C-alpha cells in the first residue's frame, strides 16, 4: 500500500522502475485479451487432435486362429464377415518390412505420417496426367484409411493425414507396420499378411522366400485388380520391379534377385490347416467376449498330426464293423498340458459319421477304467494288501448281479491280478467293502465333475461304468495321480495339493508360483505306485503281446474299459511322462459286437505311445512304504499259521490290514490221510499241520484253476465224536434273499433257473428241497434245475451227515414287478 502511494506521488519514477521483461509480459497479456477467442479455438483443436485417434483402430471381426506350442498354425476359421482375417500380430517378418517400405513408402522411417516429397510428386503426376495417378499416401496414412473404410476423396485424404500424424505420436514405427501387415488387403477375401501367406503359399510368413514375399508386398497396392487369380502378368511385372529395387538398394544380391524372379506365382488359394478342429471348437466355445481370437495352445503339431493319422488308419479298419468314431488325448504329466487333442475323426463332408462331435468332452460310460482308483484307495486305507485274495464267485447284492466278461469265476483271485485281468465281480466286492459313497467322494476330489447325481443313484455299478464321465477328466485324473507319485520324490515325501488339477490346453495358463505341501495326499504315493505296477501286468493285444521280451519296449501302466452294450471302448495308459487316453465307438451311442476296449482302443493306445519318447519308470516311494510279513497264498498279513511267508514293502496303512483268515491248524492221523480228534486218536500219533482252507463257494471254483489241497475227511471211527463240520456246504446260487426273473422261452413256456451248491467233501450226497418238498439228490456236481412260480420260496439242502442250510429267494413276475 505504501509502495502504491509512493508511485502515485512520483509517476515518472514508477515508469522508470518497470523491468523490460515485465513490459513484454504485459504486452503478451494484452495481445491474448484481444485474441482470446482465437486461443480458445486453438485449445479446442489441440484437445480434439489429442483425442481424435480411436483407442482401437480396427473393430472388424477376426478369424479364430489356433497355434501349437511353437506358434505354428494348427487351425484357422473364416471370420464372421466371410474374410480370412487373422488377429493382430505385432511380429512383422523382416523380409516383408523391407519389401513394403521399398515399394510403398521408402521414407517411412523418417516422416511423421506425412511425406511432403511424396505429396508434391503425386500432385505433379496427377496434374500432368489430368487424372489421379498417385495418392502420395504413406504406410501410416494407409493404416488410417484401412481402419476407417471411407470413400477416397480429397476431404478424406486430409482427415487421413491428420490422423496419421496423430498415430505417429501414439505408436512406434514397428507397431504401425504391424497394423498394416495385419489389415492390408491381399486379394479376394484375404486380409493381412499371415492369412495371405497361408492362403497363397501354405506356410507361415516367416518362411517365405524373397520372391514370395515380394509378390505379396505388391498386392495391397491394388488388390481388386491384381492378385494371383487375376492379371498374373501385371503381378509378375510388379514383383520383378520390386525385386530389382531391392537389389539396387543392396537389400538382396543379384543372384538372389535372379533366382527369386524364377519363382512361380501362387495359383488358386490353398485350404488352411485343419489339424485340431475339435480343439478349435472347444476354444471357440470357451472364449469370452472381447478376448483375442488367437490362441497359442500347448499342443505339439507333429504329435497331433501323428495321432490324427493313427486314428484315421484304425477308422478305416473299424468302419467295416459299423464303428465310426474314435478319439485320442495325450497329456504331459508334469504340467497337465495337452500335447495332442484328436477329438474325433475329421470327415466334415459325411454328416452320417458325426465327426463334428468332440468325443473328448462328451459324457460316456467309462466301463472298467475306474478300477485302478479303487485298488489304490483300498491300499491307501489298509483294507487290502497288494495281493490280498478277493472272492470271485457268483454274486448278487441287493438285486445287482455283476458278471465277469468271460462269464467265469476264479473262486478267489489276488487283488493285483483281478485288476490286471479287469475282473468285475472282485471289483464290485471291493467297492462294497470300501463303500460306494466314499468312492464317489474320492472321484470328485480327483477331478471327476460329471457325477451330478447322488451316490445312491449309481450304487455299486459305479465301478463298472454306471456313471458317465469324459475322456478329458479321466486323463486328467490319471495325470494327477502320476504327478503326485513323481513329485513325492521332489518334495521329500510331501504332497503338493495343487498336483490334482484338470488338463490344460492354453499356452498362457498360469502356473502356481508356490506349492502348498502337505503330509497327506488324496491318495498315498505307495498305493499309487502299486496301482500303476498292477496296471502294467495286463495282457497287451496283438503285436504288443510279447513286449517284455524287447528291451526297446516301453513300460506302460494301462487299463481298458468296455461299457454295457458294447457302446464304448476305452484305453488309458500312464507313464511318468505321459498319459494317453483313447475312446472308440459311435458318437450316437450305437453299440457294436466286438466293440471291446482291449481289441479296439488298446491298439491305438500303443501306437500313440510309440510316437512318444521313452523315459524312466516310477521310482518306488520307499519312504511311504512299510515292511510287512505277508502270507504268500492269501496275500493277507501273515498269521502264525502261515507256513509260506514273504516280506513285502506295502503302503503305510498296510500294517493295519487284516490277518490271514484261511490258514487253520488241522489234526491228522499218522498217515496224513484223515482228520482226527483226541477222542479217537492218541495225541502221540497225531500230525499237526497248517492248512489253507477257503470257504466252500470259493473253493469250488478256485481248485479248478489253482493248486489246492482239499481238507481230508475225518477218520470213520472219529465221526461219532466230532460235531458238524464248520460250513462244509454252501449254496453258490442263488445268494440269500435273491430276486430272480425267469424269462419266457421261445415256445411260450416259463424257463428254468439252475441252482448250484458245493460241498467240501466231493463224494458227499446233497438232498434238495424246495418249500419243504423233496426235489432230488446230487453227487459230485451239485446243480439242479427248478421251475418255481412267482413269489417267495425257501430252498433247503441237507447232506448225508445231516448238515443243513436254508435260504429264501423270490421269483419275480414281470407283469407286476
From TrEMBL:
Keyword terms of this UniProt record: Carboxypeptidase, Glycosyltransferase, Hydrolase, Membrane, Multifunctional enzyme, Protease, Transferase, Transmembrane, Transmembrane helix
Residue ranges of the TM segments: 37-53
Limits of the Glycosyl transferase family domain: 90-246
Pathway: Cell wall biogenesis; peptidoglycan biosynthesis
Domain Penicillin-binding C-terminal: 726-806
Catalysis performed (reactions): [GlcNAc-(1->4)-Mur2Ac(oyl-L-Ala-gamma-D-Glu-L-Lys-D-Ala-D-Ala)](n)-di-trans,octa-cis-undecaprenyl diphosphate + beta-D-GlcNAc-(1->4)-Mur2Ac(oyl-L-Ala-gamma-D-Glu-L-Lys-D-Ala-D-Ala)-di-trans,octa-cis-undecaprenyl diphosphate = [GlcNAc-(1->4)-Mur2Ac(oyl-L-Ala-gamma-D-Glu-L-Lys-D-Ala-D-Ala)](n+1)-di-trans,octa-cis-undecaprenyl diphosphate + di-trans,octa-cis-undecaprenyl diphosphate + H(+)
GO cellular component, one term: outer membrane-bounded periplasmic space
All residue ranges annotated as the Penicillin-binding protein transpeptidase domain in the record: 327-588
Name recorded for this polypeptide: peptidoglycan glycosyltransferase
Organism of derivation: Chitinophaga terrae
Record lineage: Bacteria, Pseudomonadati, Bacteroidota, Chitinophagia, Chitinophagales
